[in-house]
Design brief:
The complex is a heterodimer of chains A (212) and B (468).
Chain A (H helix, E strand, L loop, with lengths): L5 E8 L7 H4 L19 H4 L31 E3 L12 H9 L3 E4 L4 H8 L4 E4 L2 H13 L4 E5 L4 E3 L5 E3 L4 H9 L3 H6 L2 H14 L6
Parallel strand pairs in A: 1-2, 2-3, 3-4
Antiparallel strand pairs in A: 1-5, 5-6, 6-7
Chain B lengths: L5 H7 L2 E4 L5 E4 L2 E4 L5 H10 L9 E4 L16 H17 L3 E3 L9 H7 L8 E4 L13 E4 L2 H10 L1 E4 L3 E8 L8 H12 L7 E6 L1 H4 L3 H9 L8 E3 L4 H7 L8 H11 L12 E6 L6 E3 L7 E3 L13 H14 L14 E4 L7 H11 L10 E4 L4 H9 L2 H7 L3 E2 L20 E4 L14 E4 L2 H10 L9
Parallel strand pairs in B: 3-4, 3-6, 4-5, 6-7, 9-10, 9-12, 10-11, 15-16, 15-18, 16-17, 18-19
Antiparallel strand pairs in B: 1-2, 2-8, 13-14
Classes of the chains: A alpha/beta (212), B alpha/beta (468).
Chain lengths: 212, 468
């Protein structure tokens, strides 16, 4: 996994609540058996005027000029600013894959759906929960100021605005450690294989039908 | 010992290790696998030279991409076919306790197949790369959806890195009126707490009305816990649970059965256990539910109206209503019963089990679909459900009513196969999500129970099935 330490990134404000994973990456793109290449189809139904299918030349498709990601001022954005319950719906990890493949490294919202939130950490994408008032302020500032960038410091757990105002965010020690160091979680878990085996021995004695 | 909730008991009995920040390694008993969210996980195992930790925990099927007609012609879409064939070859290479491939008589939607095979048992931890894994909580199992990285993690280590959720109790007191189903209860709960109401919680559903639901009704309810934001839903084990499980292919037998039942009978919240949040509903007030918007929380009952955004003061909510009405092609204040439908879909992991089909057939019997309804799809949840329905003659009832009787699969719930809405088409659907584009780009979805869907097919518009 890609490590995350600090970022100074351009902010793109997506002013909608309850953005679901079907909107983030529509189902026809889930037929892929790869975990890369989803970026061009991120928000496909909102981003393009025609219907997208796998295998199309996306550079030849007509963009929806009214969709915020297509505004020239947000080209190269790495921080997605969103409203409550971002990433609700399906468990498809293709959603964080698409965001990351597009170039986003951070998503800031007042709340996230649980499965999406968890999936982000597995892909070097940092989901940050800030209070609704703070998110509201960031929406206003980023919409008002072209080239609005935020500084994100994972070690310090802060989001800092261009005027120097800082917001603190929470993250578990485990996730922070994995993200800062880009660690392979499976390798970490397998270092505790003896404990998993010991648990299974207990299971064999107490609930043998579970191992049948 | 302090009183524990059902979730507390399931959680603590599966903790392998715990870190200082509360992150645990949670042992996983059952891993359900389908073709869409597994290829990258198997690929990861291969690249790292790893093998599944416990092959006998894996039960797999192909469901999302499979067609629901012309099975003799195979899967026409080459990318869908490749994904299904990739699962075939991965299971062949890595193994599984059981695999129900395309066209197998046990094949079906993973959340229908698991319980009917007895692969889902009370007290288990059950995961699957699919958010509707919450369905299995109906058995007093801790079940939730995971992403593909976690699918790989569970395959490689038999554990998940997890943090405990908070406890929520949703209690539905009293008795449901005749014709009110698990689906109506689920939608009424989501209407009350919202699609993020359960975020960060495991929801236990309790109260008289829940106890009176059949196992299939409980599965429908827990299936939609995720639509309320909760990764897992739970119902305590009772005699109905045990009776349902008994004799199924992967259920324990003999001495192991007796030992299991003794344990399963402890799977309920203790008297006085602490819940971080409690929500109560009066069963008698729940009427047949119909969604009007593009989120499951945008719901009212059959006597209701499409809301007026002018009445909403919160600007974010007002914007959501306006966008939803524009997408859905609806005018504010329209009575729900005046909304005509083009297509009806009866199926999905929410509502494709035998009782669902019986309820729909009871409404359709001796009637014909309305002329304005272009298509009514009835898609059984599995090959076994299909065989049972045909043994009861339900297929004939549907066909005589002008409905199409199909092969099992996820079908138009998410339209990954050929079953999909055309832009602008309006559908009464027994599935779980009414998101923009969910059933096909530009398609307009209204979520309802199977009986309400069948009634809409006959009337041509939404109608109160209790007066039908």
């Amino acid at each position: 996994m890609k490590a995350f330490t600090t970022l100074n990134g351009l902010v793109c404000p997506l002013d909608r609540a309850n953005v679901d994973t079907d909107a983030i990456i529509p189902k026809q793109f889930l037929k892929s058996i790869k975990r890369s290449g989803f970026g061009p189809n991120l928000f496909d139904e909102w981003r393009y005027l025609d219907h997208g299918e796998p295998g199309m030349d996306n550079s030849a498709r007509q963009l929806n000029p009214d969709f915020v990601l297509n505004y020239p001022r947000y080209a190269g954005a790495q921080v997605l600013l969103a409203r409550e319950n971002f990433g609700c719906g399906s468990s498809r990890e293709h959603a964080p894959w698409a965001l990351e493949d597009y170039g986003f490294r951070v998503v800031i919202a007042p709340s996230f759906a649980d499965i999406f939130f968890n999936n982000c950490y597995k892909n070097g994408l940092l989901p940050i929960v800030l209070p609704a008032e703070a998110v509201d302020q960031l929406f206003k500032e980023s919409q008002a100021t072209e080239g609005y960038r935020l500084d994100i410091d994972l070690a310090a757990q802060t989001v800092t605005t261009p005027s120097g105002q800082s917001f603190a965010f929470d993250i578990t020690e485990h996730r922070k450690h994995c993200l800062l160091n880009g660690l392979d979680e499976i390798g970490l878990t397998l270092a505790q294989a003896d404990k998993i085996r010991a648990y299974e021995e207990k299971l064999k004695a107490e609930k043998p039908w579970l191992l049948a | 010992m302090t009183a524990q909730t059902l979730y507390d008991k399931l959680w603590s009995s599966h903790v392998v290790t715990e870190e200082a920040d509360g992150t645990v390694l949670l042992y996983i008993d059952r891993h359900l696998v389908h073709e869409v969210t597994s290829p990258q996980a198997f690929e990861g195992l291969k690249l790292a030279g790893r093998k599944p930790w416990r092959v006998s925990s894996i039960v797999a099927t192909a469901d999302h991409n499979t067609p629901t007609d012309h099975w003799d012609e195979g899967i026409k879409d080459p990318i869908s076919r490749q994904q299904v064939e990739t699962l075939d070859s991965n299971i062949k290479e890595f193994g599984a306790l059981a695999y129900f491939p395309f066209k197998d008589k046990g094949q079906g939607i993973v959340h229908v197949m698991g319980p009917e095979q007895g692969a889902t048992l009370p007290g288990m931890t059950v995961v699957c790369g699919d958010s509707h894994t919450s369905t299995h909580g109906a058995f007093g199992a801790l079940a939730h959806g995971i992403g593909t990285s976690e699918v790989e993690h569970v395959m490689a280590t038999q554990t998940l890195v997890a943090k405990k959720s908070k406890n929520m109790l949703v209690r539905v007191d009293g008795q449901l009126a005749a014709g009110i189903t698990g689906k109506d209860v689920a939608l009424a709960i989501i209407g009350k707490i919202g699609t993020a109401g359960g975020t960060g919680y495991a929801i236990e559903f309790g109260g008289d009305a829940i106890q009176s639901l059949s196992m299939e009704g409980r599965m429908t309810l827990c299936n939609m816990a995720i639509e309320a934001g909760a990764r897992s839903g739970l119902v305590a084990v009772d005699q109905k649970t045990i009776d349902y499980v008994k004799g199924r292919p992967f259920a324990p037998k003999g001495e192991a059965w007796d030992k299991a039942v003794a344990y399963w009978n402890t799977l309920h919240s203790d008297e006085g256990a602490h819940f971080d949040a409690v929500v109560t509903l009066d069963a008698a007030e729940i009427k047949p539910q119909v969604t009007w918007g593009t989120s499951p929380e945008m719901v009212t009952d059959i006597n209701g109206h499409v809301p007026d955004p002018a009445q909403e003061s919160d600007p974010v909510k007002k914007g959501s209503i306006e966008r939803a009405l524009a997408y859905m092609g609806l005018k504010a204040n329209t009575p729900i019963s005046e909304i005509a439908v083009d297509v009806v879909f009866i199926g999905s992991c929410t509502n494709s089990r035998i009782e669902d089909l019986r309820e729909a057939a009871a409404v359709a019997k001796g009637r014909k679909k309305a002329a304005n309804v272009k298509q009514v799809l009835v898609v059984p949840g599995s090959g076994l459900v299909k065989a049972q329905a045909e043994a009861e003659g339900l297929d004939k009832v549907f066909v005589e009513a002008g409905f199409e009787w199909r092969e099992p699969g996820c079908s138009m719930c998410l339209a990954m196969n050929a079953d999909r809405l055309q832009p602008g088409e309006r559908c009464a659907s027994t599935s779980n999500r009414n998101f923009e584009g969910r059933q096909g780009q530009g398609g307009r979805t209204h979520l309802v129970s199977p009986a309400m869907a069948a009634a809409a097919a006959i009337a041509g518009h939404f109608v109160d099935v209790s007066h039908f």
